[in-house]
Automatic annotation (TrEMBL):
CDD domains: cupin_TM1112-like. This is (S)-ureidoglycine aminohydrolase cupin domain-containing protein. It comes from Phyllobacterium leguminum. InterPro entries: RmlC-like_jellyroll, RmlC_Cupin_sf, UGlyAH_Cupin_dom. Residues 42-114 form the (S)-ureidoglycine aminohydrolase cupin domain.
Amino acid sequence: MTARPLFLSINVNSAGAAEEGAPPADRILEGNPTFRTWNMEEAEGGLYAGVWEATPGKWRIEYDEWEFCHILSGVSVIAEAGGAAVTVRAGDSFALRPGFKGTWEVIETTRKEYVIRV
């Protein structure tokens, strides 16, 4: 049995085909957003890491998990229900905590690196 390397590069160019998706229809508020996800790590205990990309549109989001995000390209606006809207763009990093509810609006196709802990 070959040991799995302990260094993991998060790089879509070596990740293979992306998983295609979209928000559930009942959560879409504007547009016709679509997703591409390159999930490069799925570890025991509910840890995930990879790259996610979304096309323009707006939808409702709800987080049961903790997620760290680093925006690689594009522009999005994330608004917490009852709170302020925050514009994120290339170079921005943030975390969404369990219980976060609000909206995600992609203004320009947005690509992010993520680490999720369930």
